[in-house]
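STRUCTURE REQUEST FORM
Protein name: Phosphoethanolamine/phosphocholine phosphatase
Source organism: Zea mays
Requested output: structure tokens
Priority: standard
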Amino acid sequence: MASASAPEVVVVFDFDRTIIDWDSDDWVITKLGAADAFQRLRPTMRWNPLMDRMMAELHARGKTPEDIRDCLRSAPLDTHVVSAVKTAAALGCDLKVVSDANTFFIETVLAHHGVLGCFSEIVTNPASVDADGRLRISPFHDPASAPARLQPLP
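Status: completed
Returned output:
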């Protein structure tokens, strides 16, 4: 039986092509002019190292984290999605994001549309700005480590 203070409904969202109707990685790479480098590197790299490399490419082209934020803020978000998120949060649902995007992209978009505070947790690839002002994207887990073993349900 659930405790009186715990939410009874947990709603888990993906980000790309769910909360947003587009792919955030593709949006940034295309809008900021690095699609050529992406197409050249895509066959040779795993996704997270590729996205980190693409952020290095954008940095080398003079794009700042603020340019990336501006690009993300320019992308459309369906008003029905914003309304649904706000309504679910107001009803006491526990909202979470589980995504293969990254914290920088997700938090930028959700904050811009006034719904970041509606989510109790975002589980995704970490991102940060390094000392050189370059956005860095890391994998959620170390690809060299063994995968976690699922425990059987009781």
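Reviewer notes: DSSP finds seven helices and five strands in the chain. The longest strand covers residues 94-102.
Form closed.
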